[in-house]
Amino acid sequence: MPSETLWEIAKAEVEERRSGGSESDGVEIGEKSVFFIGSKNGVMHLLVLFSPDEPPKPTLALEYTYGRRAKGHNIPKDIAHFWELGGGTSLLDLISIPITSDTLRTFSIVLVLDLSKPNDLWPTMENLLQATKLNVDKVIMKLGKKNSKAASEMRQKMWSNMQKDHPDRELIDPFPIPLVIIGSKYDIFQDFDSEKRKVICKTLRFVAHYYGASLMFTSKSEALLLKIRGVINQLAFGINKSKSICVDQNKPLFITAGLDSLSQIGSPPLPDNDIGKFHARSPMDLWKKVYEKLFPPKSINTLKDVKDPAQDPQYAESEVDEMRIQKDQQKKKKEKVWVNSCF
Fold first, then answer.
1. pLDDT digits (tens, 9 = 90+) for 171-222
2. Beta strand pairing call for 179-184 and 31-38
3. Other CB atoms within 10 Å distance of the CB of residue 216
4. 330: helix, coil or strand?
5. Nearest to 311 by CA among 137, 99, 134
6. Rounded to two decimals, what is the model's pTM?
């Protein structure tokens, strides 16, 4: 029997890695993906800040580019794949394209929210995160069938940013992959009424902490852009994560995942006698109701009507749905304690 050619050996190794049979369990650390999603003009605004000399080009659908970073002489360069979803929430179906079993273990999400449009903030955030999480959960489920070890490691990795003795560990629900929430146009936001800024800051802090995400605000300030560049470089190339923190609502927020707490964030910003008027099913639902009381959605007709993608028939996946139901039942017991403590 003739010996295999070098090409045949390489091809077989790639196929083995994709099927999950390799001892290294798949994607090499030197190759990562970062997916930018967010407000219709928020993502474009952020990317323009990074390339001020280039004229802004609105993303029409889904765009891709890549970057490389040298590690040393005769050492292969790290590669970062950058995806950008255009159209705000109008193209949710495209979210599934870059999220695959081959890329998921080194995949990160950057959610960019336009702070200058607080009435659009919650529906944009909710629709994009729900649709993204649903797609990620489906891929993890499929990955588990081929490589149960890799799927198990991903589920454990969700908790990597939260210390084992953190008091909120039983009250949060980490996003299945690394998530960074960036509030853009801080230069406009800083001129808002102080009470409005307080509500927006506390709400975004709660959402970020609940999902085990990092949260930061940015603008045209070079100092802020340097911080954001550092965060993106960490996601794309594994550069050391910043431990900086700023929770002062009168300054640009910068909170690395796992460094905040519910006790520091406090209760939803409403008088105690008003909180009891909200019939919330969960802490997230309570914060949503409080936020939308002050900032009712104005552009709901321009947003894609996906109140809950998990209930959308086109995304039906029996095994994923069954696991979701079991997890929701467990969470409800824990969430009742938190909600009751607010009354």
1. 999 999 999 999 999 999 999 999 999 999 999 999 999 999 999 999 888 8
2. unpaired
3. 23
4. helix
5. 134
6. 0.77
Amino acid at residue number 172: I
**Higher pLDDT, residue 29 or 103:** 103
Strand 31-38 vs strand 107-114: parallel, antiparallel, or unpaired?
Answer: parallel
DSSP state, residue 246? E
Q: How far is CA 141 from CA 28, 158, 258, in A?
A: 21, 15, 26
What are 101's two structure tokens? 């079993």
Tokens representing residue 113 in the block: 């929210």
The mean per-residue pLDDT over the stretch 83-91 comes to 84
Token pair for 23? 């001892």
Q: Average pLDDT, stretch 12-40?
A: 62
What digits encode the pLDDT tens for the residues 96-124? 999 998 889 899 999 999 999 999 999 99
- Two structure tokens written together for 64: 């891709």
Query: In angstroms, rounded to a whole number, what is the distance separating the alpha carbons of residues 204 and 249?
Result: 11
- The total of other beta-carbon atoms located within 10 Å of residue 338's CB is 16
Q: Specify whether the backbone of 154 is left (phi greater than 0), alpha (psi in -120 to 50) or beta.
A: alpha
- Joined together, the tokens standing for residue 178 give 């690394």
Q: Where are the domains of the chain?
A: 27-294
| CATH class of residue range 27-294 | alpha beta
CA distance 159 to 265: 20
DSSP tally for the chain: helices H, then strands E: 11, 8
